[in-house]
Design a protein that fits this description.
alpha/beta; binds 2-phosphoglycolic acid
Length: 240
């Protein structure tokens, strides 16, 4: 199966024009890449980017857990789908920490995304204080989180898990980096709990992407910061 490389733009770039030029610069690298590539821009950009770049695949960074109703400011999975998203990231650690999302909400979101026939990219990962206690403690945390997040989800053919140790997200400058060996070991552990595709995410860049992708258990990458640079992301796509 092809490696899956997902670009998570987060709250960047500030204008749709900047998003368009990034995609224009990256289009040749996407065409040449052997990987499946998904771009997750800020949701207001989705419709226009899909129209301008019909051959690219898009995803949403999040979607609300209700189909419709009195939820000011929320955007549901079906709405994301109608503007071109085929993937939706759910349970990103930034949503959990900064927006106080619970496992029960993440579970509802994942279910709704799958119900819409879209692919859910479910993010799980342990915080630093757990990792400091060791691998066994981290595995226990991951197993419990996953159990809650995929509760009563039976059709997992469109479920992708992204293992993102929280302490390793956007930290390449601080030096706190997950090693490819440890990431692959945790991903093997996750696959024993649930047979599905599992990506790695956390400070991946063009220099280290190849080391992660060399492990056959690592089915792809979820890339934040490095996905905002055509040079970096283009380099990651070449590694795949
Ligand atoms: P990063 O982000 O690549 O900047 O560490 C990854 C993510 O948050 O999905």
């Amino acid at each position: 199966m092809k490696k899956l490389i997902v670009a998570n733009w987060k709250l960047h770039p500030k204008t749709i024009g900047a998003g368009q030029s990034l995609l224009k610069d990256l289009s040749p690298a996407v065409r040449r890449s052997r990987a499946q590539v998904v771009f997750c821009p800020p949701s207001p950009y989705l419709a226009v980017l899909k129209e301008k770049f019909p051959k690219l695949t898009f995803g949403a960074q999040d979607a609300f857990y209700a189909e419709e109703g009195p939820y000011t400011g929320a955007v549901g999975p079906e709405e994301m789908k109608s503007v071109g998203a085929r993937f939706v990231i759910v349970g990103h650690s930034e949503r959990r920490s900064k927006f106080k999302e619970t496992d029960a909400e993440v579970n509802k979101k994942a279910k709704l995304v799958l119900k819409e026939g879209m692919t859910a990219i479910l993010c799980i990962g342990e915080p630093l204080e757990v990792r400091k206690k060791g691998i066994a403690a981290s595995q226990k945390f991951i197993a419990q989180q996953l159990k809650k997040d995929i509760k009563n989800i039976s059709n997992i053919s469109k479920l992708v898990i992204a293992y993102e140790p929280i302490w390793a997200i956007s930290t390449s400058d601080s030096g706190l980096m997950e090693t490819p060996e440890d990431a692959a070991a945790m991903i093997r552990f996750i696959k024993k709990l649930k047979r599905t595709r599992v990506l790695y995410g956390g400070s991946v860049d063009m220099k280290n992407a190849g080391e992660f992708l060399a492990y056959k258990d690592i089915d792809g990458l979820l890339v934040g910061r490095a996905s905002l640079s055509a040079k970096e992301f283009g380099g990651i796509l070449r590694s795949a």
